[in-house]
Model the fold of this input.
Amino acid sequence: MEETNIIEYTKEYNATNDVLTETSTPSEIVVDIKTYNIEDTKRKIAKINNAISTWEDRRAPLQAIIDMYNEIKPVEELVEPTEPEEPIE
Done:
C-alpha cells in the first residue's frame, strides 16, 4: 500500500536592496530511503558492456576503411578566391 504525505511549507520573504529572498521551511522532515539490488545492477552493467563491445567490433572494420581513405585521398589544393567579373551589359 502506498501512502501519500502532504508536507506544508512556511514561506518567508526578505527584501534587501534589489534582491528578494524566499525561504521555504517544511512542516516536517520526511526520510527518503532508496534500496538497490547490487547483483541486478552488476548484470545490467555487464549487458551494457557486452553491447558496447559488439558495436565496437562492428565499427572497427568500417573505421579502417575511413582511415585508409583519409590516408590516400588527394590533398585538395587551395584556390585563391577571385573577384567576380563585371556583368556585360
Notes: The two ends are 87 Å apart (CA to CA). Helices lie at 38-72. The first strand starts at residue 9 and ends at 16.
